[in-house]
Amino acid sequence: MKHTPDEIIEIGNDIDVAIKFKNLIVKIAAYIYVEVAHETTTSAWCVDMNEIEDAFGLEPGFIDEEVAEEIEGALYHEFGNMVAEVEYVLERESDCEHEVERYFDVTLYHNYIPGIIQDDASIEYEL
To answer: Could you tell me the pTM of the whole model?
Structure first.
């Protein structure tokens, strides 16, 4: 479904609130960046679209190809110096019966990952 930047999107699980589509996209991009930076030990991490929709109280399937492209663009725009690569997958068959996997696969530059990881390219000196 085509969304306009100023379109109002209802969100929230237990409360009724709304946000402009363009602001929602940036919030989701920030959510993804923080999740990847916090969870990765190799610089890459996958964030499930169902998890995002649940966290923001969005209807299941809200993240379609158009929304995924907007989120990908926001990740590069807002976090471009930190994000090395973004790929989204919308229709990969899962091992579970009748389930489709939908996720963002994000790779960060090592300098922007809080934890020290093995083979960290940003570490220059051995003590």
So the answer is: 0.84
